[in-house]
Amino acid sequence: MSLIYVLNGPNLNLLGKRQPHIYGHETLADVEASCRRLASELGHELRFHQSNREYEIIDWIHEARENGAGIVINPAAFTHTSLAILDALNTFEGPVIEIHISNVHKRESFRHHSFVSHRADGVIAGLGTEGYQLGIRRVATMLKTPKND
Ligand code: CA2
């Protein structure tokens, strides 16, 4: 059994409460519940966090360095601004999957660049909250697969 971190950036606490045409109707609590169900089906433990503060996300990445096997991260707006989150992820050795609920490439050009993508092993965008499930499944697969496969 390995520990997977699911990290969420600013404003995602409002999921399901505002802008459902962009982010859907599920709340972050709904997403957390489905992530927990899937992780336990796959035989993994899950830490699920959201913060509006950049340093808290960095601290959780540091925590994952100590005891985490993989990270699924929706950095929200920090995706497009945070070299500090990229630097933290670069110190983490396990699989990292970046996810976006919306298709950032279909939106404003300032959402097209991601600092986090420089480290992510995979990026999922535009598949709604299902992206979280897919991200967890991918991390689980990567944990089973030796690095040089
Ligand atoms: O599509 C995504 O998941 C994003 O990471 C969401 C971020 C946005 O800045 C990124 O460009 C793409 C915004 C998160 C805000 O979440 C809200 C959810 C519901 C209502 C209002 C904001």
Automatic annotation (TrEMBL):
Associated pathway: Metabolic intermediate biosynthesis; chorismate biosynthesis; chorismate from D-erythrose 4-phosphate and phosphoenolpyruvate: step 3/7
Stored PROSITE patterns: DEHYDROQUINASE_II
Keywords assigned: Amino-acid biosynthesis, Aromatic amino acid biosynthesis, Lyase
Chain sites annotated for binding substrate: 74, 80, 87, 101-102, 111
Active site: 23, 100
Keyword Lyase: yes
Enzyme class: lyase
Catalytic activity: 3-dehydroquinate = 3-dehydroshikimate + H2O
One BP annotation, GO: aromatic amino acid family biosynthetic process
Ranges annotated as spanning the membrane: none
A GO term, aspect molecular function: 3-dehydroquinate dehydratase activity
Protein origin, superkingdom: Bacteria
CDD domains, sorted: DHQase_II
Family in the record: Belongs to the type-II 3-dehydroquinase family.
Subunit description: Homododecamer.
Functional description taken from the UniProt entry: Catalyzes a trans-dehydration via an enolate intermediate.
Protein name as catalogued: 3-dehydroquinate dehydratase
Native source species: Rhizobium etli bv. mimosae str. IE4771
